[in-house]
Design goal:
The chain has 16 helices and 24 strands. The chain is an alpha/beta fold. It folds into three domains: about 210 residues, FAD/NAD(P)-binding domain, CATH 3.50.50; about 180 residues, FAD/NAD(P)-binding domain, CATH 3.50.50.60; about 55 residues, no CATH class. A five-stranded parallel sheet has the order 3-2-1-7-22, covered by helices on one side. β10, α4 and β11 form a beta-alpha-beta unit. Its EC number is 1.-.-.-.
């Protein structure tokens, strides 16, 4: 029986794992190399206020560097682990645990492919990885080249362009850029609803890509701005950046193709253009994924990714007493996904959820890999994509907390509307089953009140609530403008084609 659990990392995934272990009556010990105890406890208290109260644990080992996690000699019988750490005084400590949850994330090992940039050794300025970036203080009056157009590259280009003389944003393949503030001035992830998920299941992906791309290009033409990528919109998680188009429009950020070579202080791009007198190059070139503190035979390799059952459990262990939480990418926030993973793991550790055989788990992992490669543009640096709603519901089904839409439709229609049409939030998985919270229903009904509250610094009348429209279909259309506008355009286009065909026949 698992009782003592090591949680490696005190970020969002680590905090949710601690809470899930406490909820199941286990004793977690958290190891964190950088934070102070006060910061960890503050984070835990903030986490608990969003769901349900839990007394914060006292067993933290902050400023502890994980050196090694290895099997105990009797692992085949006990499934226990030995965790070797180094404390802030440089002393080695050894701990024995019944299970281990790794929450160290996937942004720890920068990918710095200097060999792909001929002449980098001749560069006369400074270069660094985005992992080392702390702010634009050292970029005042400088000429900066940012290589890579992921979220980090876009943010660094925007922030540095406010103080730098000139910023060049180099991209090999381009990117679709969406706004964090979407229609009606609300967060873009409010579109992570079950209704939208159903649309993605029943409509052709080529149509959805066309609709979405049309909506984005209506705000600013990605081709004109030099941003248009080679891939379709929903083949890769887009870049979220509200300010990048304005910085490009002002000329403070110049979008360039991939770097061909570097000659001293000159950067040459693939199209033959150059950036002269460059002072600083920032490589926003992603991260490598690794768990150097784990035994080499723990991880199962599947395609470009670390193969994990349900993206959490290594499928090759004799005892399922090791889990990786937070090791995913999706179009939703990491916090609720990490919480769901942690709840799943804690149920497995306590024996409430029985896993299939190793062979069955490996088969499921390979199926997941094929689905990822089919639905997304996958590379060595981006192998972890999952669909937010589908993944949350899949884990919730295994835990026994997925809300029954059919039951809600007949027994609580007002709640059904909010669960089906509204954003998928963690509250929905506290309505029933293990970990049920009596305040979940009220929290769902009032979640938009909390969203609007910080904005109501000047009262100007009633705000249109998402669920108070008299007709459901009009609610959908009024709050999914991109679908309405794009479908209207499609109907108009079809009408024009019909008219042209009719006129041709008449002639």
């Amino acid at each position: 029986m698992v009782q003592k659990v090591a949680v490696i990392g005190a970020g969002p995934s680590g905090l949710t794992s601690i809470k899930a272990c406490l909820d199941e009556g286990m004793e977690p010990t958290c190891f964190e190399s950088s934070l102070q105890r006060k910061e960890v406890l503050m984070g835990f208290e903030l986490l608990c206020t969003s769901i349900s109260p839990t007394d914060p644990p006292t067993n933290y080992r902050y400023s502890s560097m994980i050196m090694e996690t290895r099997y105990l000699p009797d692992f085949p019988r006990t499934g226990q682990w030995e965790v070797v750490t180094e404390n802030k005084d440089g002393l080695e400590e050894r701990h024995v645990f019944d299970a281990v949850i790794c929450c160290s994330g996937h942004f720890n090992y920068p990918n710095l492919p200097l060999k792909d940039f001929p002449g980098i050794e001749t560069f006369e300025g400074k270069y660094s990885h985005s992992w080392d970036y702390k702010g634009p203080e050292d970029m005042h009056g400088k000429r900066v080249v940012v290589i890579g157009i992921g979220n980090s590259g876009g943010d660094i280009a925007v922030e540095s362009s406010r103080v730098a003389e000139q910023v060049y944003l180099s991209t090999r393949s381009g990117a679709w850029v969406i706004r964090q503030v979407s229609d009606d001035g609300l967060p873009v992830d409010r579109f992570n609803t079950r209704f939208v998920h159903v649309l993605f299941k029943v409509l052709p992906m080529c149509l959805l890509n066309w609709l979405g791309e049309k909506k984005l290009n209506a705000m600013y033409d990605h081709a004109v701005y030099g941003l248009k990528p080679k891939h379709r919109l929903f083949s890769q998680i887009p870049v979220i950046n509200d300010d990048l188009p304005f910085r490009i429009l002002s000329g403070s950020v110049l979008v360039k193709p991939n770097v061909k070579e570097i000659r001293g202080s000159t950067v040459v791009f693939n199209d033959g253009s150059t950036a002269e007198n460059v002072d600083l190059i920032v490589f926003a070139t992603g991260y490598n994924y690794d768990f150097p503190y784990l035994p080499n035979d723990v991880m199962y390799k599947s395609g470009h990714r670390v193969g994990l059952y349900k993206h959490v459990i290594p499928p090759v262990l004799e005892h399922p007493t090791l889990a990786i939480v937070g090791f995913i990418h999706s179009d939703g926030a990491i916090m609720p996904q990490a919480e769901m993973q942690a709840r799943f793991v804690s149920r497995v550790f306590k024996g409430h959820k029985k896993l299939p055989s190793c062979q069955a788990m490996i088969k499921a992992v390979e199926k997941d890999t094929k689905n990822i490669e089919k639905n997304y543009v996958v590379s060595r640096l981006t192998p972890l994509q999952v669909d937010f709603v589908e993944y949350m519901d899949d884990l919730a089904k295994d835990i026994g907390v997925r809300p029954s839409l059919l039951w809600l439709f007949f027994t609580d229609f007002p709640l059904f509307k909010r669960v089906f049409w509204g954003p998928v939030t963690a509250y929905q998985y506290r309505l029933m089953g293990p970990g049920k919270w009596d305040g979940a229903r009220k929290a769902i009904f009032t979640q938009f009140d909390r969203l609007y509250q910080p904005l109501r610094t000047r009262q100007v009348g009633m705000t249109l609530e998402v669920y108070k429209h008299p007709h459901l279909i009009l609610t959908v259309l009024s709050h999914y403008h991109f679908l309405y506008d794009a479908i209207s355009s499609l109907v108009s286009l079809m009408s024009q084609l019909v008219d042209q065909t009719h006129n041709h026949r008449t002639v």
